[in-house]
Design goal:
This protein is mostly helical. It is 66% helix and 2% strand. It has a two-stranded antiparallel sheet. It is rod-shaped. It starts with a strand and ends with a helix.
Length: 201
């Protein structure tokens, strides 16, 4: 029997069993537990993976003994495939040989994902600041920045607050006012012209 992708997402992977399980509820429980574990791995939530792993092992113990080796291989194969999809190919050949080694493997993978996500978020924060510096005189908003960075406004907003310590509107206003202060101090432009030049209509 073939275990299809539990998330309903397109996938090139399929896991095959040597024997059909005698109880379909075993397949469903194992599949749901594995799906939850893979989702936690995908987003790097280390604190959740331990509980999902316990659930997965509990579901695995309910599988008939003669079918556990093929179930083990299915689990390990799907975890390896997920890691490869996440762009962590160097971790695919990690010492993942049995279910006992899965916990250590998942912790290592989770840490790698967190590190990767942190690097991406720092890059997004730096590019966000550069975008505001380059476009503060224009009528820009969070949606414009999100479109420029090919991310959702919600994601950009979260990264902004985490790494810059304020939201987009406040940072834009801060930069505009700093630029206006410089012009007020160092130029002979009229106040209205200065306001227009920094994006205030």
């Amino acid at each position: 029997s073939c275990l299809e992708n539990p998330d309903g997402e397109s996938s090139d992977a399929a896991a095959f069993f040597e024997d059909r399980f005698t109880d379909d509820s075993n397949i469903i429980s194992l599949n749901l537990a594995l799906s939850s574990l893979l989702k936690a791995i995908r987003i790097g939530r280390i604190s959740e993976t331990d509980e999902y792993l316990k659930t997965l092992i509990s579901a695995l113990h309910k599988v008939p003994k003669e079918q556990q080796p093929s179930a083990n291989e299915m689990i390990l194969s799907k975890v390896r495939f997920e890691i490869n999809q996440l762009g962590l190919a160097s971790m695919v050949n990690h010492s993942l040989t049995d279910i006992d080694s899965l916990k250590t493997y998942i912790v290592d993978i989770g840490n790698a994902i967190i590190e990767k996500n942190t690097s991406i978020q720092r890059y997004i924060a730096a590019e966000s600041l550069k975008y505001i510096e380059d476009h503060y005189a224009e009528q820009i908003g969070l949606n414009d920045l999100a479109s420029f960075l090919h991310r959702s406004p919600g994601y950009i907003s979260t990264v902004f607050k985490q790494y810059i310590g304020t939201n987009f509107v406040q940072k834009l206003a801060q930069i505009r006012i700093e630029k206006a202060k410089q012009l007020l101090a160092d130029s002979t432009f009229m106040v209205n012209d200065i306001a227009l030049s920094v994006g205030y209509t």
